[in-house]
Hints:
With 498 residues, the chain is α+β, with helices and mostly antiparallel strands. The protein has a domain at 4-243: ATPase, nucleotide binding domain (Nucleotidyltransferase, domain 5), CATH 3.30.420.40. The protein has 17 helices and 24 strands. The strands form eight sheets. A seven-stranded mixed beta sheet has the order 18-19-17-16-22-23-24. β10 and β11 form a beta hairpin. α15 (431-443) crosses α16 (450-457). It is globular, with a radius of gyration of 21 Å. It starts with a strand and ends with a helix.
Amino acid sequence: MKAYLIGIDLGTSGTKTVLFDSDGTVLAEATEEYPLYQPQNGWAEQDPDDWARAGIQTVRRVMEKSGVSPGDVAGVGISGQMHGLVMLDADGKVLRKSIIWCDQRTAKECEEITRRVGREKLIGITANPALTGFTASKILWVRANEPEVYARCRHILLPKDYLRYRLTGEFATEVSDASGMQLLDVPARRWSGEVLKALEIDPALLGRVYESPEVTGYVTADAAAATGLAEGTPVVGGAGDNAAAAVGTGVVTDGSAFATIGTSGVVYAHSDKIAIDPLGRVHTFCCAVPGAWHIMGVMQAAGLSVQWFRNNLAPDMSYAELDRLAEKVPVGADRLIYLPYLMGERTPHLDADCRGVFFGLSARHGRAEMVRAVMEGVSYSMRDGLEILKGMGTDISRIYACGGGAKSAFWRQMLADVFGVAARTVECTEGPALGVAVLAAVGAGIYPTVPEACRAMIHDRDELKPDAEKHDRYNEFYRVYTGLYPRLKDSFKELAEL
């Protein structure tokens, strides 16, 4: 009997659910979108019940489309946007909208965390400095600004883990996603009693931490009726979106890396040994392979920059049309440079106050030059992360490209040219969904380990090699790009204080 696996990818713009067979072949997929709320500049929230509704509906749709018998689904894995704060009351009801990963309101709370724990100790335990995007500072913000909500809170979950709760009734998480809460002892792969005590957060609010391929619970009767799955179907830990994308592209051994262009942008390298940047410019998290870690640089507004451009300056054009428009413009976008700091920035600046900039804009520039500059600026920002990883001794000779932006052959070639390394893709482009389906296959006992499951379920497709001449030309503009932030840093702060 053939086994089937479901991967659910709970993203920022929507949730995609994909049904795979045990060879990694896609049988059916469905997507459901939901809104993003920005009540103030720099704030970002979503409704957890929108996520749950989208997850349940998309699972039902793929089951109906495929005609697969519910009993033949061996397991479910869930990937999700990281860092979001979901607060539930004693009855498991949502108390407020989730403050999500790109929200920048918690600079004051980050200072408080650093003061309470100590910067060096915090980086040593959580492998990262206090960051506005992470969950711990959001918890402190709610406690300080909405004390009545905090007083009623009995459970704190991450976005994908709220969907897990709705499917299984279990309050649980796993190491890769929990690494981004700033509450996990990342080297030890467990909640940090020292950090929780320093921040006065009750450990009882947090769910049990699992390894990513472990079974965390089983589909309840109510969830089975809602989704079309069989009651008792196992649900594994899954992974945060980037760790899931790594598994979904086969980046599960030393020396392998990937770059993803989703709403945010990531450069990610696998490591069997933990390595921490003492300056905190890149993140070290537990990865979805038990006993291993990953190092990644994260930019806030990658695909979001192109989406913003299209929605506001080219609403009549598709993304494919924008690609063709940008392709007509030579390297350097006619001396126009874009800083992609629409939501502040993490790697390498750790600056909640910086904002987007078009530098060099002139009367001769139009939409073609501007969209090319946006794509180049995102690529430069991702190279910032790559350069830090190289400086930490990471050997990167080939990068797998994934995410919505990487479906563009034009943008993949741009990444190869900007990075100066080959950009490879895999047959299945459903990175995070496939990644957690791989984890579900391991949890269900179909494959013994994550690397073995990847060898069976993930298949390489093409490789775009860098153009040496274009790489040299990009280097010239990249030098200008890297000089802009230091010159504007104080002005960003002044603007934020007005």
